[in-house]
Amino acid sequence: MQVLSEQELLRRQEKAELEKLGINPYPSETFEVSAFSKEIKDQFDAQPERYKEVTLAGRLMSRRIMGSASFAELQDAEGRIQIYLRRDDLCPEEDKTLYNTVFKKILGIGDFIGIKGYAFKTQVGEISVHVTELKVLSKSLKPLPLPKTDADGNVHDAFTDPEQRYRQRYVDLVVNPHVRDAFVKRTQLVNSMRNFLADKGYLEVETPILQPLYGGAAARPFKTHHNTLDMTLYLRIANELYLKRLIVGGFDGVFEFSKDFRNEGMSRFHNPEFTQVELYVAYKDYDWMMNLVEAMVEKVAMDLHGTTEVQVGEHKINFQRPWKRFTMFEAIEHFTGVDISEMDEDQLRATAKDLKVEIDETMGKGKLIDEIFGEHCEAKLIQPTFITDYPVEMSPLAKKHRDKEGLVERFEAICNGKEICNAFSELNDPIDQRQRFEEQLELGKRGDDEAMVLDEDFLRALEYGMPPTAGLGVGIDRLSMIMTNSNSIQDVLFFPQMKPEKKAVTVELSDEAKGILEMLTKSGRAELPALKENAGLSNKKWDKSVKELTQNGLAKVEKTEEGLFIEAI
Predict the structure, then answer these.
(1) 209-242: burial string, b at 16+ Cβ within 10 Å, e else
(2) What is the pTM of this model?
């Protein structure tokens, strides 16, 4: 049984009252909007004649009723604006129901209305809309958790609990309008990158999300089952191998903004469903790609902020080119004082232990180096920095370094202590690629559940020939965090993954118990004898019904000096 609060019951009654008046609380027809709140407030002084007749729609967010005239606040997609309603303007005929009953008594905070009127400036200089017509567009059945400000300017009851905000983003966006700024900037960021890549002539494409083999990254996948084909499929962990197939097929430059999925830990930097853009360009290498990344991210900062300097927490990060560059071994030596460039696996394991890095027996040479770098270097790289030339064991899809034995041509860009992109001179030697995949299979046998699998079709594609290619993956969520000064990845995802919500246990109540609960919900607390009399039940039914409510935690009976009371919980 759904237990409703007093406010929820009241709003359902108001809905019924609208229907009795012949007003549909949820009309179907289009309501044409001619202007928005921000536009009117920004443009009214310069072009007052433009707003002599306007129609707006949005939520009622506050009301100040003063008899035959009232002020209210309307919130639309662009902000809030004050509206002014006079009974005789709204109801020029004898029937004043629309103002006296509908507006004053039935409509409430959170309800959607459409208005027609004209913009004007009040005596205190506030740009407002004088309402001449009003239409109910949607009745809200739940009260909004609106913050309240007292006389001293202190805010109470703000909707700030992170779990509630992320679960009920629809409420968060209504009562905390500033939250939408991060999401607007995120869309601007994606558009900036998309335009940058499209202007260079690269083709935006789509590749499969459901894949018979997962590949392109070191990660654990989600898996599902295709009933018609009777086969296991995986949600992609990356789209790299499919995009490279397109390079084999003759495209010189392809990119994809993609949703990818990795069945691994969650934190303020990780969500199992995430967005990245991957780019592959033929006849280029990782040095060329570094220059492209600098130019693209610098452009993003300029498009979003009008400057290359972005405030992120306590740091001011400057994306102006050129960015600092370290090889991975240089970075580790710089921050730990230890040169690991000539160490074998046993020496690396001992060094990791000396540096108090947590490791386990499943880790090969590449994972050990990665753990040392992650523990001692990554968090210290605040300004955008390229880390280059990774050990071959860490990069099964990257081309061996042209000059340095045992390394590959790979870079990651680190900013504010976290990786924001990863790029290679892509491995296009099918013999070498097969050997790398086989080495990954051995790591999998040792217990590494993030090791890559061998993809025979991809190897077949490489055997037809893939030109020299530079590849890139940029994490949109991570970059959005930086560009919007957000502390958590959940703040740049509309609907982040959450643990299952604890649902109230459904309780089957007798009709008598439901009747008592409904009376209690309206009153909140009542004297037991008086409520019993109002219920009109026999002693036996009364006792059984009260027991139902108390045993299910829906009501409690309390004995005081004033007598016996029953209260809804």
Answers:
(1) eebebbbbbbbbbeeeeeeeeeeebbbbbbbbbb
(2) 0.83
